[in-house]
Design a protein that fits this description.
95% helix, elongated, mainly alpha
């Protein structure tokens, strides 16, 4: 039963994303999720944010 509910919910959410953002917007959102969920890209993003925060504090 939980698998069926999860797949239905996934379909509803993806349909809502496509309806609100269109196919290009959905593609960009999913691409961003993949980049930040993947550990190397996530670590690069965290490092860039830390660098930006320290740069702004010293300026």
């Amino acid at each position: 039963m939980p698998r069926r509910v999860g797949s239905i919910l996934s379909g509803v959410l993806s349909g809502a994303l496509v309806a609100t953002l269109g196919y290009r917007g959905t593609f960009l959102v999913c691409g961003a999720l993949v980049l930040f969920a993947n550990p190397p890209f996530r670590l690069w993003a965290i490092g860039a944010l830390d660098w930006w925060k320290t740069r702004r504090k010293t300026a």
